[in-house]
Amino acid sequence: MASRALILFAHGARSAGWAEPFERLRDMTAARVDDCEVSLAFLELMAPSLPDEVAAMAARGITRISIVPVFLGLGGHLQRDLPALVERLRTQHPQLSIDVAGPVGEDAGVLAAMADYCVTSLS
Amino acid sequence: MASRALILFAHGARSAGWAEPFERLRDMTAARVDDCEVSLAFLELMAPSLPDEVAAMAARGITRISIVPVFLGLGGHLQRDLPALVERLRTQHPQLSIDVAGPVGEDAGVLAAMADYCVTSLS
Questions:
Q1: InterPro entries, from UniProt (chains A, B) (predicted)?
Q2: Chain B residue with minimal CA distance to A15?
Q3: What's the pLDDT band for B123 if we cut at 50, 70, 90?
Q4: Contact A67, A100 (CB under 8 A)
């Protein structure tokens, strides 16, 4: 069993269909990594929450968790809500190593792909 | 002067820094298109709003506007708010041609770039 996990952390929304590209992203990522669980967790409106997902992982022996915020920009959710959640999780699960990446939307490769899409939308 | 424009439509947030990757995306896209203005407009919390941006464009002779939603998923904002805004804009500016693309986050190239970022975050 993997002892490592990657959690794609997304906002959540009322429309069930909203999560569809995030589910695709989870599956695409999972297909490319070995010995690492890949799952989704949400800030609000959708399940599982980040604390529930981390607790379930800790209970089954995961020791190292990387969180990638699937957000476009660095707003209050990533500047305040996520750090507060992670601080509580580190206190609750001191045996876990938890690291947090920057938001996907600030990655140069993601921005380049979005620019490609914008340019293509004009043709 | 360009008669065509591309509007990158984003959610908006309270943190001024949130818009930074969207501004980079606007500049990267603008550098790659000819005879087309590229600008940002926001649903809420940031200016300009989409109606204000479209009205300003119409006033200076833009005749054709493409809107690209810089959103990750297709939630209520894109299923209800944006179509309602666009319907009003078409009524208010009947001389304008306005088309709306799918959200950037559902594009295969953008998803692939996000998966690359997720995989890289593990190393």
A1: CbiX-like, Sirohydro_Cobaltochel/CbiX
A2: B75
A3: confident
A4: yes
- Secondary structure of residue A75 in the 3-state scheme: coil
Q: Do A33 and B116 touch (CB under 8 A)?
A: no
How far is CA B95 from each of CA A53, A122, B6, B65, rounded to the nearest angstrom?
Answer: 51, 19, 17, 11
- DSSP string computed for A34-47: SS-EEEEEESSSSS
Radius of gyration of chain B (CA): 15
pLDDT of A63 > 90? The answer is yes
Asked if A117 and B111 come within 8 Å (Cβ–Cβ), the reply is: no
pLDDT score, position B16:
85
Residue A113 φ then ψ, to 5° = -65, -35
The size of chain B, in residues, is: 123
Q: What is chain A's length?
A: 123
Structure token digits, residue B48: 């300009």
| A104 contacts in chain B (CB < 8 Å) | 114, 117-118
Task: Please answer yes or no on whether B118 and A68 come within 8 Å at the CB atom.
Answer: yes
Instruction: Supply φ then ψ for residue A48, to 5 degrees.
Output: -80, 155
The CATH class for the domain spanning A4-121 reads alpha beta
Q: For A14-62, what is each residue's pLDDT tens digit?
A: 998 999 999 999 999 999 999 999 999 999 999 999 999 999 999 999 9
State pLDDT tens for residues A8-19.
999 999 998 999
Task: State the residue for tokens 């407009």.
Answer: B41
- Interstrand relation of B37-42 and A4-10 (parallel, antiparallel or unpaired): unpaired
